[in-house]
UniProtKB/TrEMBL annotation, chains A, B, C, D:
Catalysed reactions listed for this entry: aceneuramate = aldehydo-N-acetyl-D-mannosamine + pyruvate
Assembly description: Homotetramer.
Record carries keyword Metal-binding: no
Name of the encoding gene: NPL
Protein name: N-acetylneuraminate lyase
Protein keywords: Carbohydrate metabolism, Cytoplasm, Lyase, Schiff base
Recorded family membership: Belongs to the DapA family. NanA subfamily.
EC number of the protein: 4.1.3.3
Native organism: Pogona vitticeps (central bearded dragon)
Keyword Ubl conjugation tagged: no
Molecular function GO labels: lyase activity
InterPro entries for this protein: Aldolase_TIM (IPR013785), DapA-like (IPR002220), Schiff_base-form_aldolases_CS (IPR020624)
Listed pathway(s): Amino-sugar metabolism; N-acetylneuraminate degradation
SUPFAM superfamilies membership: Aldolase (SSF51569)
Length: 354, 354, 354, 354
């Protein structure tokens, strides 16, 4: 199938001209041009409060008898802002054991984060997903009433035969309870088992959900992610990557930010990495990424779920996050000891990390 | 296709007599009696109201706008008893879209089934499992208050790293809210992804949950099932198989009954199969099982989930079960047409089935 | 632990007599006889040498340097026949590490089994499957030349996108190299990942492969298995179940025999179970099945693959089966010690088992 | 669309000069140079013939009766070099249906590629992996005899319980048959099901296999990949990424090259992308990656395996690659028509691609 080579050559020259008008380097230096897809603060859009950079998926502090502990949330906010340079949070998500809480508890937590985050945090995003549509709607309505900066919804995952249209309808019904609040779709197929590409959902969401503002993308499928990024050429929405241990690869593919549990304690290190990437300084970016990976590879090999995240966060921040709620069980003391030793042993890396 | 109710009543009385002659413990000790772990009604225990035989996992009737439709439940009870010979139900389970409903809706449904089932049904088992422990406890408490005949709990499945002890603790906490109500563990690893053998959980449950009465076992792993049966030598609990399309294989391995969605419309056929099996008439038992499989193999190949179950039940019973709630979407008209044709085309089998 | 050979011979003769009275077709038409799809030797067909009963999936004996050890195969044959009452073998299959051997080695092994099995074994089935069609054809041709009693072929499993027609064409091409030799399809989706129902393949095989004689069905999907059995109403082919630890459930669903690694050392126990089942004595059948399951559940929980099978067989038979070939590694001494203790500790069961 | 060969040669020479100025180790220590783990040709090591850049995983041309077609390999070599700018090949791998061929055929193909590639190709890497260790060793020995530039071995995947030490022993035994030939480990867990991190294997391979030179890494787990890259700080081995549709993300994580089937026809486009990346021109790199993804996302949604790769390659190159061998079946005509239309319809992208 040989192409007509002359026509092709002409066409390519025209395109090249077009392309020269879009000088990415300008974008990178000035921060004025929107179409590079980087995580550079301000590199993209109009909205004063566009969600970008690092977003901590917060744990839910609990007392020793596994009840929610609202008392430490003020301290938690200060720690994130002052110690980690993280000014946005994702509350009641997977890390926050949102689906293990009652509706009432989820509301209380959302209220506390909004109250304590006032004038300190840029974005308090509240996850309002639930298996039950009426409950998810109730949570969305409440979130709007208390003035959150965004709501997010995971695909309901008890049934696996969910199709694209039904999922869109579910998301739309929830979003419509909070029409003025930015809506984020929380895409995490490895956990939900719902295998619908984010890219396929994007068109539907931008059309059907006026408040749609972005995706928390927690999957290793960077073909799907890249196709979302390709549709985000004017930076119209947030593409927040959610597989923390390989963030650098997603930045290269067009991530505009990141949501994850590790930003609770590795916020600083990831901020440096993202800045290095934005400046084109790959050596530094890789150095930080590899350090982060050395630690995360280690804990993942031990089994790294919410109980372990809570333990690491308690250890690093000094704030008592407590045990997880059932059906999860506390991280072992052996795990905590190993983590402590690993952090100390990361001679070449640990100053980057903490 | 109404059953002759008098004959039916007579048959049940005869069975009861027959059963008294069959002392399960004798069978196990002497090895002389052949029907030792069978689903013969009453072949095992002391309790007047031991759960056994077929239990219909009920669908939740909905209106066209996907709200619960309590109005048809009375009719539904009569259909099960009179047309299908099924006198026990499992409400708000997977088939009943329990986790897609609000807590309030689940309570309303439980109340309606208890009310309409009075003096008609032998057992109204209400599923009270939820991802959230406080919600599950609230439901268990309510179930006890309204006088259900049993509660059942599925493993909370959002997090997959649940271990045996934590799962037991979760189940125990729920059961303790309804201490006088028989407790059933709902084991369904293919759906929950929680891969803990039922046999491993059994010891813990018999020790820690005084109200423990049995397992709804929805898995093809008949090694695990057989090991449960081996622990049930005096018939102390119910072993209810839940993979409808291969029930006969589980009867051979010690099932004492069955819970499933297909008993809504294939109750009669399965009752005949179970009776044939109990009498040692394998030819008849297989004949019925193979007919049932011909139909179920056909619909499973089309994709057979809750929406399709609702459609089949509406078609066969004539009671409008309505669409499923989001995130599920209605079965296609094409599916319904195929089912209708298949049922008619099952020349050699359909008289067994309907 | 030698069987009383005279008593054994007598038992086999009696069974044969019993069997002549059982005409399978009568059973199916009249519905009067209860044991219609059973594994009763001879209960079904015309062919004098129909494959039925237990078939041992043999391990491949190896020397300490992991080379095949032909020297012990004569002893192996005698052990199976005299100690286990097993008179058919499945050579070079999964248990036999067939795909880890060279073509030349597979031929040598087939030759040795045929030679040593002469006038001792009823059936020497040789597995000739390979990832490569030309190699599989070469093996089939060789098997025919040396006079095996049957060949078997697994689905080539490197590529997972194999469709039904292509798989049938592959099987047909292999079978056509040995047109006079009974052909068995080896169905094992959990290992191959090729998810095509056996029942769908059956029609194609009976039409396209004149030498087709049966299926080794190694899957827990007993809907699929039952649908095969329903197509086997006149006992025209062998339905050999291959998930040893739940054989009883498959007998109930129409299995006509069994192929598996555990029949190397639990042949006797399984023979008793099958006979009890055939006589309708469920108490005894379950008793044996549960004993077998207690042992197999234990070893499966330790990790039970070919290396462990070889170790168990060496321990029980006293014949040195040696280590497996790379990429497999030997069972640990700890495993062997545990197995030894478990066999001794099975107080209530061990007399059934060994 | 022939490349200007002289210009191309000049470009390559310049790059080499440029590269000499770029000392990777300096980069890593000083942090001043931005392109530290890049795929810049020559940016790393001493060896004159270090494998880097794009490596085409070649299809195996076949005649209409599915026999290997050696006749077109000369033409194939010229196409890759002249039309795609690809000068290294990976022969008899997954794309090449290596495991579907006989040992004899694999040898013939290796010989033909070496013969036709002489003075045209930089690297002819021959995959010599097999399920059977003796066969894999035989192939390695042959490859050494005919003077290939490297051998590669996939994990034998029939058994899934392979552990790290046994896998290393298997690889070492194969490598030792070709001690003077660079050895590459072919890591592809999604296909083999062998879930051992490449990073864990690295230490073992560098210690035990003197000829070890690198990894073809075909997995989306970029934590594992990054940890390999962190161990490659002095560029001592090749890290060749193998998930073509997301190559850019792996470049960011330290890939030094890429092996894949799409470089047969998208070599040029990927070369431009890699060069843009190496220069820090992310706008251009993303633009090319997104174009490539638009096409690959489309074909993957149709089902994109070896048959479809062969069809695309036949279409784009004009060289008749023929059907695949059984158990694979030819791509449908409908697929080919869709691909043709898609390529034409990629208005904004196709000039980049072809």
């Amino acid at each position: 199938m040989r192409l007509d080579l002359k026509a092709e050559k002409r066409r390519r020259e025209q395109t090249r001209t077009l392309v020269e008008a879009c000088d990415r380097r300008d974008c990178l230096l000035s921060g004025q041009v929107s179409s590079c897809s980087l995580a550079l603060p301000g590199c993209s859009m109009t909205s004063q409060k566009k969600l970008q950079g690092l977003v901590a998926a917060t744990v839910t502090p609990m007392t020793q008898d596994r009840e929610i502990n609202l008392a430490v949330i003020g301290q938690y906010v200060d720690y994130l802002v002052n110690e980690q340079g993280v000014r946005s949070v994702f509350v009641n998500g997977t890390t926050g054991e949102g689906l293990s809480l009652s509706i009432q508890e989820r509301k209380q937590l959302a209220e506390e984060w909004v109250a304590k985050g006032k004038e300190k945090l840029d974005h308090v995003i509240v996850h309002v997903g639930a298996l039950s549509l009426p409950e998810s709607k109730e949570l969305a309505k409440h979130a709007a009433e208390i003035g959150v900066d965004g709501i997010a919804v995971i695909a309901p995952s008890f049934f696996k035969q969910v199709n694209k249209d039904a999922l869109l309808a579910f998301l739309r019904d929830v979003a419509s309870e909070a029409p003025g609040i930015p809506f984020y779709y929380y895409h995490i197929p490895p956990l939900t088992g719902i295998q619908i590409n984010a890219e396929e959902l994007l068109d539907g969401m931008t059309e059907q959900i006026p408040s749609f503002q972005g995706v928390k993308f927690s999957d290793r499928n960077l073909l799907d992610f890249g196709r979302c990024a390709a549709k985000n050429s004017s930076g119209q929405f947030a593409l927040l990557y959610g597989v923390d241990e390989q963030l650098l690869s997603a930045l290269a593919m067009g991530a505009t930010g990141a949501v994850g549990s590790t930003y609770n304690y590795f916020g600083k290190a990831n901020n440096v990495m993202m800045e290095a990437f934005a400046k084109g300084d790959f050596c530094t970016a890789q150095k930080y990424q590899f350090c982060i990976q050395e630690f995360l590879g280690f804990v993942i090999a031990q089994g790294f779920g919410v109980p372990q995240i809570k333990a690491v966060m308690s250890l690093v921040s000094g704030i008592p996050m407590g045990p997880p709620r059932l059906p999860l069980s506390s991280a072992s003391e052996e795990f905590v000891a190993k983590v402590r030793a690993k952090l100390e042993g990361l001679k070449n890396c640990s100053y980057h990390l903490l």
